[in-house]
Amino acid sequence: MDGKKALYYGAIALAILVGVSVVLSVISAIIGLATAVVSGIVTLAVLAGLVYVAYKAGSWLLGDDDSPSIDSVGSGSAPSTSVDAVDSRQDRLRQQYVEGQISEAEFERRIADELETEELDDIDRELERER
């Protein structure tokens, strides 16, 4: 083999080596970029989860139950209203009657008072709307 052929094959080998090196560098850069993007997304997701947990823990510790929960916002239900309060009072009366804390006559009297109050509240709301 003469010197020219050896130089020619050496140049071809060097070109192939440089080409493979460039291709591997580009692939390595793409993999590095993809890894950085995935790592950033995972970091943001973990951070958002921690912030949510801290918010819920703070709400629980401070007793802030007035705000609607995430579940109720998604389902379209409204925050508690005066109708819920009336139902709650009636439920309390029923519970007291069932537990024997009040008599049947007392239960009926109090329920009648609640229903009367509820009707008056409805009339007041209707008058407010008409104004």
Task: Give the uncertain stretches in residue-range form.
Answer: 70-80
**H-E order:** HHHH
Shape: rod-shaped
Average residue-wise pLDDT: 82
The counted number of beta strands is 0
Number of domains: 2
Strand content: under 5%
The number of distinct helices, counting runs of at least 4 residues, comes to 4
Helix percent reads over 70%
Q: Main beta sheet: strand number and arrangement?
A: none
Q: What integer value in Å does the Rg equal?
A: 37 Å
What class would the helix/strand composition place it in?
mainly alpha
Q: Give the CA-CA distance, first to last residue.
A: 109 Å
Notable features of this structure?
131 residues, mainly alpha, 2 domains, rod-shaped
Describe the protein's architecture and organization.
The chain is mainly alpha-helical. It folds into 2 domains: 1-79; 80-130. The protein has 4 helices and no strands. The protein has helices at residues 3-62, 70-75, 82-98, 104-130. The longest helix has 60 residues, at 3-62. The model is unreliable at 70-80 (pLDDT under 50).
Give a topology summary:
Blueprint: H1 3-62, H2 70-75, H3 82-98, H4 104-130
In short:
The protein is 84% helix and 0% strand. It is mainly α and 131 residues long.
